[in-house]
Design goal:
- The protein is an all-alpha fold.
- The protein is about 50% helix and about 0% strand.
- The chain has one domain.
- The chain is built from 3 helices and no strands.
Length: about 55
């Protein structure tokens, strides 16, 4: 996107630097039997936010 919007390059690159893969958080620090051994969004979201519909 920074190639498409060169005037926004520093902003876009800054956002990219601050991105975090939340799957790594669940792999390392949050375990629940209802995940059934998986850390995919399909398993995690219904446990963490049961009222949310996928």
């Amino acid at each position: 996107m920074s190639a498409m919007y060169p005037d926004k390059e520093s902003f876009l690159l800054d956002i990219n630097e601050r991105m975090v893969d939340l799957e790594n958080v669940f792999k390392a620090a949050y375990i629940d039997a209802r995940f059934e051994g998986s850390t995919s969004i399909k398993k995690v979201l219904p446990v963490v936010f049961p009222s949310h519909k996928l």
